[in-house]
Amino acid sequence: MDLSCTEEEEEFRARLRRWLGEVLPKLPDRPAADDWPGRRAYDTAWQRMLYDAGYAGLHWPVDAGGRGATPTQHLIFLEETERAGAPYVGANFVGLLHAGPTIAAEGDAAQRARWLPPILRGEEIWCQGFSEPDAGSDLAALRTRAVRDGADYLVTGSKIWTSHAQVADWCELLVRTDPSAARHRGISWLAMPMDAPGVTVRPLRTLAGSAEFAEVFLDEVRIPAAYRVGAENDGWRVTMVTLSFERGTAFVGEVVACRRVLAALARTARDNGRWDDPELRRRLGRLSAWFTALWRLTQWNVSQAQHGGGGVPGAGASVFKLSFSQARQELYEAAAEVLGGYALDADREWVAGRLTSLSYTIAAGTSQIQRNILAERVLGLPKGR
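Structure (tokenized):
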């Protein structure tokens, strides 16, 4: 695989850099962390600017409304937007990075026409209804039931750790449609409107002080069967497509962000005298090598997905997710060492990032789940059950 940029790709980088230089100084200040209506408005406005400039859904296929850009152009986009300090994908995270790509890959023509354009234009926000209180990352243990009633499903159950649920328009929802089937069967993937009668959202405040997550309770919520993506009881296979996007490409931009934080840590350490500690210098050097390796793995995963995986990341997604979550935690532990006594000051830069980093070995499937996937699909070891 050739990872060097062509002349055309370098021209793409230059155009993007010029555009970012023109629009970013005109953006309003970002809203406060807990101002969710404000954050939704800010994030969707940025998405609309990307759409109008031709940068929305850069890596999506053309027939799904995307630009059909090369893997390298996609990575250039992530590098340049992060380098310039452009807004993060924010509340558009689920729709753009895994619900949308899943619908593009598995939805029928009517579903693609209904849901993909509003995601790209920043008009509709999605959340994820996968985890449950008694299931967590063991998705096959989910108990939320969907009972067929004519042309609809009646859905009853609850979900937890549902990011952005309080401002979402739609939810990618996993339900059990055949309770008599084996654990990994009898599951379906539905698109649920969040304003449907019977949906109750209760925000959860995290260790970092943010109410980013929520509990979602479902009391006989009526969802048209036409909103099911994939065949009935084939939701486990569709879910694996979603999780491959979530673990393989959804965190890619954060690798660039972590490299920027690492460089800032080194500058701060030089300023406050911590750089004189050889152990800290070795620690930062090891992290630099680690994130460089993760970026190369990212390039490989994205290229493999585009050229050999039908756009869907393979088992390399779990390799990336497992290693990235560990690297991110160690990065912010190093930040605490650089900060010294100020690491307990909640108003200091990187302190909230340190607290949030603890969730990364759980988000998008725990590290134990990733190790099981690698053991079974990469090493060919027998399943534990």
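DSSP finds eleven helices and eight strands in the chain. The mean pLDDT is 87.
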